[in-house]
Write a structure and sequence with these properties.
By secondary structure, the chain is an alpha+beta fold. Among the domains are: about 120 residues, no CATH class; about 110 residues, Chitinase A, domain 3. It contains 18 helices and 10 strands. Helix 5 crosses helix 12, helix 5 crosses helix 16 and helix 5 packs antiparallel against helix 17. It starts with a helix and ends in a 7-residue tail after the last strand. About 30% of the residues are buried.
């Protein structure tokens, strides 16, 4: 079934429209022209086909034109499934435009590339302490953010008073198991070999001073830079292409930083906030379900529960769990994400909100042209109308196959194929 539907989409042709050229085919006397044919079957690929494949393509064109007309007659463009697929396409186009025209453009600007080049000129040696909290990534602690910050500040005070040195503090306090053994020593690291939050602090830190506490998704950090080493680079003009490749590969933090800046600007511009109490309550419910089922659950499983507390607010308007789950349905990766801890759940809601606001921003600010967006959405609408109609017909009649259906459509209508398009 899936293969049939994919093949149908590949050969999708639009309704005939006025043209002074010869039709490629007619359906019950109605002409279908080249522009409809080449919109989904590029002229080069069609011209490369042997005559028998061209004939098959033209017949498939006729089948799809007939199905499409029937679908519109049945108002399938307003079917929930078709509309959801159109919305998914709309969101994807808008998000892609936001990435390409804003985030990647800023990431690959000359100033950002030059800054990365300067940072690659050295390695930084440092010790590091992590104090995690229950909202942190990959954490098992139950301490609150406030408790974690208090611990971090107390460590700074003890070190600065001479009561304990940084190495011993790391062995005793850090929540990073490896750093306990190493006394917090990360060695000399290259630009990119650590969390962005740590990198930017370390590369600007005066030697032998404590920096922090500052926060990352893992918790609160303290660092102490004990030295730097030179890492010679070729001249900028020679190194520029390799630096761009590094940035594009994600091995340096520039893209992530620009992404986070844009996310924060969206949150601020559209006044979107989250209710941490509601997310915490929802997490407790998910844990109870997990214990009952004896397995991790995905965000999609929360559709089965009733939860009335607002998860967030957009410009003061409450946003309920049902809205977040509906938005998650647009992205398979989000909808299937398991809920491991509070961080995971919060990150899912944040990603959904960022995507929603990014789409709104891209469309309202014209990052994607309205004409292009409309054309692409129309293509999806037509393709999904045909897919839906075929699926309905095959389910309604036992033993019916797509080939039988196509032959039935062709024989029950007056189809003429222009021989000039079959044999060049």
């Amino acid at each position: 079934m899936k293969k049939i539907l994919i093949n149908t989409v590949l050969f999708l042709f639009l309704f005939s429209c006025s043209s002074n050229k010869e039709p490629v085919l007619t359906i019950n006397g109605e002409s279908v022209f080249e522009d409809a044919l080449y919109r989904t079957s590029p002229i080069k690929s069609f011209n490369a086909m042997p005559p028998n494949e061209r004939e098959m393509a033209l017949k498939q064109c006729a089948v799809n034109e007939i199905l499409l007309k029937e679908g519109y007659d049945e108002d399938l463009q307003n079917h929930k499934y078709v509309q959801s697929q159109v919305e998914i396409k709309k969101h994807q186009i808008a998000i892609d435009s936001l990435f390409n025209k804003v985030i990647w453009k800023r990431t690959l600007s000359d100033s950002v590339i030059h800054d990365a080049y300067q940072k690659l000129h050295k390695t930084v040696g440092m010790r590091h302490i992590l104090i995690s909290h229950r909202w942190g990534h990959k954490t098992k602690t139950t301490r609150t953010k406030e408790e974690a910050l208090t611990i971090a500040n107390n460590i700074v005070a003890r070190i600065e008073s001479g009561e304990i040195d940084f190495e011993k503090a790391a062995r005793f306090y850090t929540d990073d198991p490896l750093m306990k053994v190493e006394g917090g020593d990360l060695g000399f690291i290259f630009w990119g070999n650590m969390l962005p939050e740590v990198l930017y602090k370390a590369w600007n830190a005066p030697p032998r001073t404590i920096v922090g506490p500052f926060e990352s998704p893992f918790g609160y950090h303290l660092i102490r830079v004990y030295g730097t080493k030179s890492a010679p680079q070729p001249p900028f003009d020679e190194a520029k292409k390799s630096i761009i490749r590094l940035i594009k590969s994600g091995k340096t933090p520039e893209f992530k930083v620009q992404m986070e800046k844009k996310e924060q600007s969206l949150i601020n511009e559209y006044q979107f906030t989250f209710s941490m109490d509601a997310i915490d309550s929802l997490f407790q419910i998910s844990q109870n379900i997990k214990m009952e089922l004896k397995q991790n659950i995905a965000i999609s499983y929360l559709n089965k529960i009733s939860f009335d507390m607002p998860i967030g607010f957009e410009n003061g308007t409450p946003i309920l769990l049902s809205w977040f789950l509906n938005e998650a349905n647009r992205v398979k990766e989000i909808n299937g994400t398991p809920i491991y801890n509070r961080y995971t759940l919060l990150k899912i809601f944040q990603d959904i909100a960022y995507r929603h606001l990014g789409v709104k921003d891209a469309i309202s600010k014209g990052y994607v042209a309205a004409e292009v967006l409309g054309q692409e959405m129309k293509k999806v609408e037509r393709a999904e109308i045909i897919n839906l109609l075929i699926s309905q017909k095959l389910k309604a009649e036992k033993g019916l196959t797509f080939d039988i259906l196509s032959n039935r459509i062709l024989t029950s209508n007056d189809i003429w194929l222009n021989p000039k398009y079959i044999t060049p």
